[in-house]
Design a protein that fits this description.
The protein is α+β, with helices and mostly antiparallel strands. Helix content is 28%, strand content 27%.
Length: 261
């Protein structure tokens, strides 16, 4: 779906439900290139670290705050169809907060407890929850391999206190239990190239990957300009303008990378 532009109905849906799934926002050829790029990215694998779920499962993460000019990840993060869409959904100029690849391997990929991203980002000096993420399915995401789960409309709860839940930090269990009773649970099953945009206060989680298939996802995280953190030198960057690239630039980077390889 090169050239995707979010419409008023979709923006209203995001504001009401806290998330928006866009099918095939990247073409199969683009995703095939991204999969090959990520699988062969030894530097990314070397930077990655493991998060255990306390139940024998583990998920590997690679988090980056910087955007390398020659990286295919950068082309995705800067693309109009991702960054431009997020700006429209959040109603302000956005900047790159960070991006990360989550690597849920077959049979061993761990679970994530219920949490809000703003439950963590609040402590980075962000005054408002005017932030969001886009999870791009690199591999097919199903219930069997631990796809993202969300509670529809739970972003309207506001920020929930986060506490230790097993070996992870998650949303306060009593609040989560009450939210589950009031908000519909949605499994965000996606094909490669599908994306889900979600608000930083949306409660979400995922199960272990019990399947024979991997589930890798590229998550692009954005903050709004007016929400520049009140502290500097935090875990993720303060505001700096994000140059948004035309969608065609993704293809240009893929072709340039192929020529190098």
């Amino acid at each position: 779906m090169s050239g995707f532009t979010v419409n008023a109905q979709q923006i209203a849906q995001f504001q009401d439900e806290g998330f928006l799934i866009v099918r095939q926002i990247f073409r199969p050829s683009e995703m095939a290139a991204l999969i090959a790029y990520a699988r062969g990215d030894e530097s990314m694998l070397g930077e990655s670290y493991v998060r255990n779920d306390g139940q024998g499962g583990e998920t590997r993460l690679a988090v980056r705050n910087d955007l390398a000019d020659d990286s295919l990840y950068t082309a995705v993060v800067r693309s109009q169809r991702i960054a431009g869409t997020m700006a429209a959904l959040l109603g302000d100029e956005v900047y790159h907060y960070h991006h990360k690849m989550t690597l849920k391997q077959p049979k061993t990929g761990g679970a994530w407890e219920w949490h809000q991203d703003y439950g963590y980002w609040y402590h980075n000096g962000c005054l408002y929850p005017d932030m969001g993420s886009c999870m791009l399915a690199v591999d097919k995401a199903t219930q069997a391999n631990g796809c993202l789960q969300v509670l529809r409309g739970s972003h309207k709860l506001g920020r929930v206190d986060h506490v230790k839940v097993g070996e992870q930090t998650g949303a306060e269990p009593a609040r989560v239990e009450a939210a589950i009773a009031r908000h519909k649970l949605v499994y965000c099953e996606m094909e490669p190239g599908d994306a889900v945009f979600f608000h930083s206060n949306l409660l979400h989680r995922s199960d272990q990957n019990t399947s024979e298939l991997p589930r890798w996802s590229l998550i692009c995280c954005y903050n709004t300009r007016h929400n520049d953190p009140i502290v500097t030198g935090g875990r993720h960057p303060n505001y700096s303008p994000l140059e948004i690239w035309p969608d065609e630039h993704v293809t240009e980077v893929i072709e340039r990378q192929a020529a190098v390889d």
